[in-house]
Amino acid sequence: MEVKTLDEMITKLGSLVSVTEPKNYPLDRYVDVSPDNLIPAVQKLKEHGVTHLSTIPAYECDEGYRLLYIMSVPVKDGKWGKMTIVVTLDKNKPEIESLTSEIPGAEYYEREVFDMLGITFHNHPDHRRLLSPDIMPDDVFPLRKDITYQEIRDRLAAEAKVRYEE
Amino acid sequence: MTTEKMKGIGPIPESCDYSIAVGPQHPTHKEPMRWIFHVKGETIHEVDLRLGFNHRGIEKAFESRTYNQNLYLAERLCGICSNAHQYCYVQAAEKCANLYDEVTERAQFIRILLQELERIQSHQLWYGVLAHDTGYDTMFHITWRDREIVSDVLELISGNRVTYSMYTLGGVRRDISKEQIDKILPMVAEIKKRSLYHKHVLESEKSFVVRQKDVAPLSAKDALRFCANGPVVRAAGINNDIRKKDPPLGYDRIPFDIPIYNGCDIFDAMRVRMDETLIACDISTYVLENLPAGDIRIKFPKKIPPNEGISRVEAPRGEDIHYVRSNGTNKPDRHKIRAPTTGNILSLRHRLKGAQVADIPPVIRVIDPCIGCCERATFIDVKSGKSKTLSNAHLISRANRAYRLKTKVLEF
After folding, report:
1. What ipTM was predicted for this assembly?
2. Hey, are the CB atoms on B1 and A143 less than 8 Å from each other?
3. pLDDT of residue B408
4. Partner A contacted by B398 (CB < 8 A)
């Protein structure tokens, strides 16, 4: 059952989402979802033929950590709209349920978010770092705002010394 | 989470009797990635992959440069699809500044021309390398010889053969003159003629076809499940071409078809790319013959008010996405890049299961992996920024140590 426009899709999602302000272009929409409502909202989207998760950009902001799940929603004329589900996480509790149970393709995107920002995904099938080196200390997450270039370099150098030098 | 679990490679499953490590440096790979194939006999049962050998910190670098400087950083993500990344970046930044719709028609068409010419050179490169991977080196040399023509066309338009630097925020940097069009049109016709010849040879050479038919299929269901993108999905019968589904400006006014096959295997992925090369020639000819008059760029502000923009284009390898978040200054707050390879790796891992060891090179080739795009985000600088001269003996001892570490990991 396909929808005609992204706005129709947003009305179908109902109380699961809240739209802060309409902005950007007809094929771009941003909706806010609380962490608990993410899985039900994605299940609802799947009922309307949504399968494609493009990626999960994430960044640190004043309110905490923000994840953006970019989903492709089939709309009229064979087009795909970009519906971006925005989830904001508390800074002291960067945890969320993994989306891999609904969309297996989210596995690598979630691993990258964990690698860069240290957000834990519960029930993830393979919860490891993706890109950073093996010597990256367990508590260092490079894209967090509270760590600088120099600190990461120093920590990596210290770790490398322990591992590779006599 | 234990430290062991954090490491790159997992343990060998009990059902397998050998593990083969391929890479990071291996003749099969054009770029560094480390595969661990857990095999039983000649059949691959489990696949593990370690990425991160080409991690340069580009996403972080984007945040410390201005929007104009980022133009040239964006195209240096990758050598082959440099244009696609720049295309994607300018569109995302224009969406941030609410100027996306105002780019002139002439600029839109020149952008499309560059993108399609890049598709031709990327696909010709790809099927040349595929022929090389399956042991058909004659065809590799022929396709790469013929690929020079499209490089010449791109040089004629932009002055460069690899990073074209044609796009700018709000339009394109150089115009195309009437004389250039007269020179380019016969060259595009020649490219099409030679591509037709490649298609004829590659589809009828039996020893080449037999290496690909029914090898490592990816069904439509799995392609959707693993969120795959690009030509491998169109080889499974699903139309996912961004040029039709979420088109950049201008594509709506150009008539063209999307090639779709149902074989799911490497052979059909090759046929999709072959047909796309021919269609890209047609689109280029159409654009050159119907180039609208007008300006090539509009004025673009130096500072962008707080906003966010997502844009995607159909790169030669598949769907490329950029996310730009502006904060009112002349530098972005966050820039996220998702290259097509990152989206395809999971489905590639899946389709390698059950394949034979001898088929590994063509199967890895099917998604056209580009690790340069795939890994970019932060920074790996182990040597703490100090300049330090390392002796030969020191380097050898480090290499040996790293080698020992690897073997230890494999013994688990």
Report:
1. 0.91
2. no
3. 47
4. yes
